[in-house]
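Issue 218. Parser rejects a valid record. Input:
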Amino acid sequence: MSRVTFEFTASKKNDFGQAVSGRFALSSAIPCEIHIRADYDAPAVLIELLNVGRLGTGRCRLAPEAFNERVADEIAKHALGSENELAKFLTR
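Output the parser choked on:
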């Protein structure tokens, strides 16, 4: 999904020769992105995260008045790996 180059080595295969467990070795960095956008048509603040905190995407839509200094603080803490409460706002 993130187009990160990797190698996979199967450690266990089923009776059909298909890998059921294994090891991934990444050969490049995993991209991490945070996008904060304004939706002017339906007033809201859209927050999108890619591989921040954990692999995958996270999304949040907040009313303009709900996007405040506390939310911005939680986004920054989350990006830095500090204890935070951003999960209260996000759906994955």
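Fixed in the parser; the record now loads. The helical segments are 69-80.
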